[in-house]
Design brief:
CATH architecture of the largest domain: Alpha-Beta Complex
Distance between the termini: 42 Å
Shape: elongated
Number of domains: 2
Strand content: 5-15%
Order of helices and strands: EEHEHEHEHEHEHHEHHH
Number of helices: 10
Amino acid sequence: MKSNYRTKSTIKVEGTSRPVSEQPLQAKTIVAIPCFNEELYIGSVVLRAKEYVDQVVVIDDGCTDKTAFVAEKANAFVIKHGSNEGKGAAIRTAFDYAKKAGCEALVLLDGDGQHDPTYIPSLLKPVLDGKADMAVGSRYLGVKSSTPRYRTWGHSVLNLFTNLGSGVKLTDSQSGFRSFSSKAIEALSLAEKGLSVESEMQFLAREAGLKLAEIPVSIGYHTRAKRSPIAHGAGVLNSIIGLISRRIPLFFFGIPGLIMVGFGLWEGWRVVRGWETLQAFWLGPALLAVILLVVGVLSLFTGIILHTIRSFFK
Protein backbone atom coordinates (compact mmCIF):
# COMPACT_ATOMS: atom_id res chain seq x y z
CA MET A 1 0.00 0.00 0.00
CA LYS A 2 1.19 3.45 -0.77
CA SER A 3 2.10 5.41 2.33
CA ASN A 4 1.32 9.07 2.90
CA TYR A 5 3.10 10.79 5.78
CA ARG A 6 3.72 14.20 7.23
CA THR A 7 7.19 15.37 8.09
CA LYS A 8 7.84 16.98 11.48
CA SER A 9 4.42 15.71 12.48
CA THR A 10 4.54 15.75 16.27
CA ILE A 11 1.44 17.13 17.98
CA LYS A 12 0.83 17.38 21.69
CA VAL A 13 -2.23 16.34 23.63
CA GLU A 14 -2.15 17.70 27.17
CA GLY A 15 -4.97 15.49 28.45
CA THR A 16 -6.13 12.21 27.01
CA SER A 17 -9.76 13.30 27.20
CA ARG A 18 -9.09 15.99 24.58
CA PRO A 19 -9.50 15.21 20.89
CA VAL A 20 -6.48 15.27 18.60
CA SER A 21 -5.87 18.95 17.92
CA GLU A 22 -4.57 18.69 14.33
CA GLN A 23 -6.56 17.45 11.35
CA PRO A 24 -5.23 13.98 10.48
CA LEU A 25 -4.53 12.89 6.93
CA GLN A 26 -7.23 10.79 5.34
CA ALA A 27 -6.13 7.15 5.43
CA LYS A 28 -7.93 3.90 4.70
CA THR A 29 -5.72 1.79 6.96
CA ILE A 30 -3.73 2.94 9.98
CA VAL A 31 -1.34 1.28 12.40
CA ALA A 32 -1.29 2.93 15.83
CA ILE A 33 1.53 2.18 18.27
CA PRO A 34 1.10 3.26 21.92
CA CYS A 35 4.58 3.75 23.39
CA PHE A 36 6.36 4.47 26.62
CA ASN A 37 10.17 4.66 26.34
CA GLU A 38 10.67 2.38 23.32
CA GLU A 39 13.51 4.22 21.53
CA LEU A 40 15.44 0.96 20.92
CA TYR A 41 12.70 -0.71 18.87
CA ILE A 42 10.22 1.90 17.66
CA GLY A 43 12.16 2.85 14.53
CA SER A 44 12.29 -0.68 13.13
CA VAL A 45 8.66 -1.35 14.14
CA VAL A 46 7.47 1.76 12.27
CA LEU A 47 9.54 1.00 9.17
CA ARG A 48 8.23 -2.56 8.97
CA ALA A 49 4.61 -1.64 9.75
CA LYS A 50 4.33 1.10 7.13
CA GLU A 51 4.84 -1.48 4.37
CA TYR A 52 1.28 -2.74 4.98
CA VAL A 53 -0.85 0.34 5.72
CA ASP A 54 -1.47 3.89 4.55
CA GLN A 55 -0.21 5.53 7.72
CA VAL A 56 1.61 4.72 10.96
CA VAL A 57 0.81 6.75 14.08
CA VAL A 58 2.90 6.63 17.25
CA ILE A 59 1.37 7.76 20.53
CA ASP A 60 4.19 8.95 22.77
CA ASP A 61 2.62 8.45 26.21
CA GLY A 62 4.87 10.79 28.16
CA CYS A 63 8.15 9.16 27.08
CA THR A 64 11.34 10.42 28.71
CA ASP A 65 13.66 8.99 26.04
CA LYS A 66 13.98 9.57 22.28
CA THR A 67 10.94 7.52 21.23
CA ALA A 68 9.24 10.45 19.48
CA PHE A 69 12.45 11.57 17.76
CA VAL A 70 13.18 8.09 16.38
CA ALA A 71 9.57 7.59 15.31
CA GLU A 72 9.61 10.88 13.41
CA LYS A 73 12.84 9.91 11.66
CA ALA A 74 11.06 6.74 10.54
CA ASN A 75 8.27 8.95 9.07
CA ALA A 76 5.58 8.14 11.62
CA PHE A 77 2.93 10.65 12.63
CA VAL A 78 3.63 11.28 16.33
CA ILE A 79 1.12 12.36 18.97
CA LYS A 80 2.62 13.27 22.33
CA HIS A 81 0.88 13.13 25.69
CA GLY A 82 2.02 15.70 28.21
CA SER A 83 2.58 12.96 30.81
CA ASN A 84 2.38 9.20 31.15
CA GLU A 85 -1.36 8.45 31.22
CA GLY A 86 -1.31 4.68 30.62
CA LYS A 87 -1.87 2.36 27.68
CA GLY A 88 -5.64 2.73 27.75
CA ALA A 89 -5.36 6.49 27.46
CA ALA A 90 -2.93 6.14 24.55
CA ILE A 91 -5.37 3.83 22.75
CA ARG A 92 -8.18 6.33 23.25
CA THR A 93 -6.02 8.93 21.54
CA ALA A 94 -5.37 6.47 18.70
CA PHE A 95 -9.11 5.85 18.32
CA ASP A 96 -9.82 9.58 18.26
CA TYR A 97 -7.21 10.06 15.55
CA ALA A 98 -8.61 7.14 13.51
CA LYS A 99 -12.12 8.64 13.65
CA LYS A 100 -10.88 11.97 12.34
CA ALA A 101 -8.85 10.26 9.62
CA GLY A 102 -11.95 8.37 8.47
CA CYS A 103 -10.07 5.09 8.33
CA GLU A 104 -11.74 1.78 7.48
CA ALA A 105 -9.42 -0.31 9.63
CA LEU A 106 -7.09 0.40 12.54
CA VAL A 107 -4.37 -1.96 13.78
CA LEU A 108 -2.87 -1.70 17.26
CA LEU A 109 0.50 -3.17 18.06
CA ASP A 110 3.15 -2.62 20.72
CA GLY A 111 6.32 -0.65 20.12
CA ASP A 112 8.70 -3.02 21.90
CA GLY A 113 9.23 -5.34 18.93
CA GLN A 114 7.23 -8.26 20.35
CA HIS A 115 4.59 -8.06 17.62
CA ASP A 116 5.65 -9.09 14.14
CA PRO A 117 4.30 -6.55 11.60
CA THR A 118 4.15 -9.22 8.88
CA TYR A 119 0.91 -10.39 10.52
CA ILE A 120 -0.76 -7.01 9.88
CA PRO A 121 -2.38 -8.14 6.57
CA SER A 122 -3.84 -11.20 8.34
CA LEU A 123 -5.40 -8.97 10.99
CA LEU A 124 -6.68 -6.48 8.43
CA LYS A 125 -8.32 -9.01 6.11
CA PRO A 126 -11.36 -10.07 8.22
CA VAL A 127 -12.05 -6.41 9.08
CA LEU A 128 -11.76 -5.11 5.52
CA ASP A 129 -13.81 -8.06 4.23
CA GLY A 130 -16.59 -7.22 6.69
CA LYS A 131 -16.31 -10.56 8.49
CA ALA A 132 -15.19 -9.08 11.83
CA ASP A 133 -15.35 -5.77 13.67
CA MET A 134 -12.42 -6.69 15.90
CA ALA A 135 -9.72 -9.24 15.04
CA VAL A 136 -7.46 -10.31 17.89
CA GLY A 137 -4.00 -11.74 17.29
CA SER A 138 -3.67 -14.82 19.50
CA ARG A 139 -0.35 -16.36 20.52
CA TYR A 140 -2.22 -19.53 21.60
CA LEU A 141 -3.71 -20.71 18.29
CA GLY A 142 -0.99 -22.97 16.95
CA VAL A 143 1.66 -20.50 15.79
CA LYS A 144 4.75 -20.98 17.92
CA SER A 145 5.58 -18.11 20.26
CA SER A 146 8.38 -17.79 22.79
CA THR A 147 5.93 -17.01 25.59
CA PRO A 148 7.51 -17.64 29.02
CA ARG A 149 5.67 -20.22 31.07
CA TYR A 150 4.84 -17.81 33.88
CA ARG A 151 3.13 -15.53 31.36
CA THR A 152 1.14 -18.46 29.98
CA TRP A 153 -0.10 -19.31 33.48
CA GLY A 154 -0.95 -15.70 34.19
CA HIS A 155 -2.75 -15.29 30.88
CA SER A 156 -4.81 -18.41 31.63
CA VAL A 157 -6.12 -16.80 34.82
CA LEU A 158 -6.81 -13.46 33.12
CA ASN A 159 -8.48 -15.22 30.17
CA LEU A 160 -10.73 -17.14 32.56
CA PHE A 161 -11.97 -14.04 34.38
CA THR A 162 -12.28 -11.94 31.22
CA ASN A 163 -14.12 -14.62 29.25
CA LEU A 164 -16.41 -15.44 32.17
CA GLY A 165 -17.21 -11.82 32.91
CA SER A 166 -17.64 -10.63 29.32
CA GLY A 167 -19.44 -13.70 28.00
CA VAL A 168 -17.05 -13.71 25.03
CA LYS A 169 -14.50 -16.50 24.67
CA LEU A 170 -11.03 -15.60 23.41
CA THR A 171 -7.84 -17.62 23.73
CA ASP A 172 -5.71 -14.49 24.23
CA SER A 173 -7.72 -11.77 25.93
CA GLN A 174 -4.56 -9.81 26.79
CA SER A 175 -3.20 -9.52 23.25
CA GLY A 176 -2.37 -5.95 22.28
CA PHE A 177 -2.03 -6.94 18.62
CA ARG A 178 -5.51 -6.44 17.14
CA SER A 179 -7.47 -4.67 14.42
CA PHE A 180 -10.74 -2.72 14.41
CA SER A 181 -13.37 -1.69 11.91
CA SER A 182 -14.76 1.85 11.82
CA LYS A 183 -17.86 0.48 13.57
CA ALA A 184 -15.75 -0.90 16.41
CA ILE A 185 -13.79 2.34 16.75
CA GLU A 186 -17.06 4.23 17.21
CA ALA A 187 -18.57 1.65 19.57
CA LEU A 188 -15.67 1.09 21.96
CA SER A 189 -15.90 3.95 24.46
CA LEU A 190 -12.91 3.02 26.58
CA ALA A 191 -12.65 4.10 30.21
CA GLU A 192 -9.69 2.04 31.47
CA LYS A 193 -6.39 3.91 31.46
CA GLY A 194 -4.03 1.06 32.25
CA LEU A 195 -3.09 -2.36 30.92
CA SER A 196 -6.55 -3.87 31.44
CA VAL A 197 -7.83 -2.01 28.38
CA GLU A 198 -7.79 -5.19 26.26
CA SER A 199 -10.13 -6.91 28.71
CA GLU A 200 -12.41 -3.87 28.68
CA MET A 201 -12.62 -4.12 24.88
CA GLN A 202 -14.00 -7.64 25.25
CA PHE A 203 -16.77 -6.44 27.60
CA LEU A 204 -17.64 -3.52 25.33
CA ALA A 205 -17.58 -5.68 22.20
CA ARG A 206 -20.22 -7.96 23.70
CA GLU A 207 -22.39 -5.02 24.73
CA ALA A 208 -22.13 -3.44 21.27
CA GLY A 209 -22.80 -6.71 19.44
CA LEU A 210 -19.52 -6.58 17.53
CA LYS A 211 -18.29 -9.50 15.46
CA LEU A 212 -14.99 -10.91 16.76
CA ALA A 213 -12.33 -13.09 15.17
CA GLU A 214 -9.01 -14.50 16.33
CA ILE A 215 -5.95 -14.72 14.10
CA PRO A 216 -2.92 -16.90 14.95
CA VAL A 217 0.19 -14.77 15.45
CA SER A 218 3.67 -15.28 16.82
CA ILE A 219 4.96 -13.04 19.58
CA GLY A 220 8.62 -12.75 20.54
CA TYR A 221 10.05 -11.75 23.91
CA HIS A 222 13.41 -10.06 23.41
CA THR A 223 13.95 -8.22 26.69
CA ARG A 224 13.03 -8.51 30.34
CA ALA A 225 9.64 -7.19 31.36
CA LYS A 226 9.60 -3.53 32.41
CA ARG A 227 7.19 -4.28 35.24
CA SER A 228 7.02 -7.03 37.82
CA PRO A 229 4.93 -9.82 36.21
CA ILE A 230 3.21 -10.48 39.54
CA ALA A 231 2.33 -6.82 40.11
CA HIS A 232 1.28 -6.47 36.48
CA GLY A 233 -0.98 -9.54 36.58
CA ALA A 234 -2.48 -8.59 39.94
CA GLY A 235 -3.24 -5.09 38.71
CA VAL A 236 -4.95 -6.34 35.55
CA LEU A 237 -6.91 -8.95 37.50
CA ASN A 238 -8.08 -6.31 39.96
CA SER A 239 -9.28 -4.15 37.06
CA ILE A 240 -11.08 -7.11 35.46
CA ILE A 241 -12.88 -7.81 38.74
CA GLY A 242 -13.88 -4.15 38.78
CA LEU A 243 -15.24 -4.46 35.24
CA ILE A 244 -17.29 -7.51 36.26
CA SER A 245 -18.68 -5.80 39.35
CA ARG A 246 -19.77 -2.73 37.37
CA ARG A 247 -21.16 -4.48 34.31
CA ILE A 248 -22.76 -7.60 35.75
CA PRO A 249 -23.38 -6.76 39.43
CA LEU A 250 -26.13 -9.36 39.79
CA PHE A 251 -23.61 -12.07 38.93
CA PHE A 252 -20.74 -10.52 40.92
CA PHE A 253 -22.70 -9.89 44.13
CA GLY A 254 -25.66 -12.25 43.69
CA ILE A 255 -23.84 -15.55 43.19
CA PRO A 256 -21.56 -15.15 46.24
CA GLY A 257 -24.59 -13.94 48.20
CA LEU A 258 -26.57 -17.06 47.34
CA ILE A 259 -23.61 -19.26 48.26
CA MET A 260 -23.23 -17.55 51.64
CA VAL A 261 -26.97 -17.82 52.33
CA GLY A 262 -26.81 -21.54 51.48
CA PHE A 263 -23.90 -22.16 53.85
CA GLY A 264 -25.58 -20.03 56.51
CA LEU A 265 -28.76 -22.11 56.32
CA TRP A 266 -26.72 -25.31 56.46
CA GLU A 267 -24.83 -24.13 59.56
CA GLY A 268 -28.09 -23.02 61.15
CA TRP A 269 -29.61 -26.44 60.48
CA ARG A 270 -26.60 -28.08 62.17
CA VAL A 271 -27.10 -25.88 65.26
CA VAL A 272 -30.79 -26.80 65.45
CA ARG A 273 -30.03 -30.49 65.00
CA GLY A 274 -27.35 -30.31 67.71
CA TRP A 275 -29.85 -28.79 70.13
CA GLU A 276 -32.53 -31.36 69.28
CA THR A 277 -30.29 -34.43 69.56
CA LEU A 278 -27.68 -33.45 72.17
CA GLN A 279 -29.37 -30.57 73.99
CA ALA A 280 -26.21 -28.58 73.25
CA PHE A 281 -26.07 -25.06 71.86
CA TRP A 282 -23.08 -24.57 69.58
CA LEU A 283 -22.26 -20.89 69.89
CA GLY A 284 -19.52 -20.81 67.23
CA PRO A 285 -21.55 -22.39 64.40
CA ALA A 286 -24.56 -20.30 65.43
CA LEU A 287 -22.58 -17.04 65.09
CA LEU A 288 -21.13 -18.23 61.80
CA ALA A 289 -24.63 -19.01 60.50
CA VAL A 290 -25.88 -15.54 61.45
CA ILE A 291 -22.88 -13.81 59.84
CA LEU A 292 -23.18 -15.82 56.62
CA LEU A 293 -26.92 -15.17 56.37
CA VAL A 294 -26.62 -11.42 57.03
CA VAL A 295 -23.67 -10.86 54.65
CA GLY A 296 -25.19 -13.16 52.02
CA VAL A 297 -28.55 -11.39 52.04
CA LEU A 298 -26.86 -7.97 51.89
CA SER A 299 -24.70 -9.10 48.97
CA LEU A 300 -27.70 -10.55 47.14
CA PHE A 301 -29.77 -7.38 47.53
CA THR A 302 -26.77 -5.23 46.56
CA GLY A 303 -26.52 -7.17 43.31
CA ILE A 304 -30.25 -6.80 42.65
CA ILE A 305 -30.24 -3.06 43.35
CA LEU A 306 -27.14 -2.36 41.22
CA HIS A 307 -28.51 -4.52 38.41
CA THR A 308 -31.78 -2.56 38.48
CA ILE A 309 -29.94 0.78 38.43
CA ARG A 310 -27.72 -0.34 35.56
CA SER A 311 -30.70 -1.59 33.57
CA PHE A 312 -32.50 1.72 34.14
CA PHE A 313 -29.57 3.79 32.81
CA LYS A 314 -29.02 1.44 29.85
